[in-house]
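so the lab meeting is tmrw and i was supposed to have these ready like two days ago... anyway. pasting both below. for each one the top line is the aa sequence and the line under it is the structure tokens. i havent really looked at them closely yet so no promises
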Amino acid sequence: MHPHPLKQLLSLLSNLIFYFGYHKPTAQSIGIFVWCLLLFIKAVMTGIQTKTGLYSALTFDSEWMMISVLPFIWLYNGQRGKKSWITKYFFYIIYPAHLWILMILRYLFIKYELQY
């Protein structure tokens, strides 16, 4: 199955922002901010036009949340972090663990018919 052409174009444009903003955090941040603003407007307009609601549009058309990477770009000092066992395997453990926790919580909510 081939990806939708619009998705390919969006991916290409965001990759170009990162490419041309390489080693230029201010330019990269401005590009990401403007791009996310446009994606946010697209998500809102999609939600209005399809009458799915704002929550649904912003949740499932969430490319605009790329703006959350900006603090990490600003904090990066260009140097590699500490090398240790903990830093090497931290996300290999945390990522699957948080998915398991979310799955268990969802199961409990469904089993006990809790409203979330």
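ok protien two:
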Amino acid sequence: MNQHPDLIAAVSSLSEEHSSAPFPPGLTGADRAGFDLVLPDSDISGCVATWLHNGGHLDDRRYRILHWRMSQLSVILTELRDDDCPAYWDRLFRMGQLVASTDPTPRDPAAPTAPRPAEHPVEPTPQELLADLYGYDQDAHFDTTQLREGLAQRIPLARLDKFLAAVKATGDPAVDLETATALLDRTR
């Protein structure tokens, strides 16, 4: 039985808003406070998507990743410039805070536990990779340009090229979530 339906609704609303917003222009590959901006965004968003998909629950490993990236984001927030789209990062932080508040294990926010080396970087499943891009919308379709932009920082370039070649080989100008997931899974 879900103990926090209002919290899930609030996180879901923030997540939908966040996933529909483009990554701030000019910030791919940029860093603030010594942290790459793409990584906290993708990891926190991935943890949030998994939390929502699991009905408000994460495993311990993902909670640790979430806390680790949230500690980085809290430092990043202090270094953002006006042209860095602060509202984008504030929304991401609010989502992460809400999800982190459901962690049953007390953690010291001043000393977050980085995932063990064997656990990070976490290689997400094809479903997790595409969840942010498609937003679990079974009717959404993306072309190769959109897929390249959405996955460029998330999977190795060689795998991305194989995946895009497989998408082009379908003969369709754009593919849905189910097709994209199946094609990405085959490119391992």
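from a quick look at the 2nd one: DSSP finds eight helices and four strands in the chain. Residues 2 and 105 are 18 Å apart (CA to CA). will dig more after coffe
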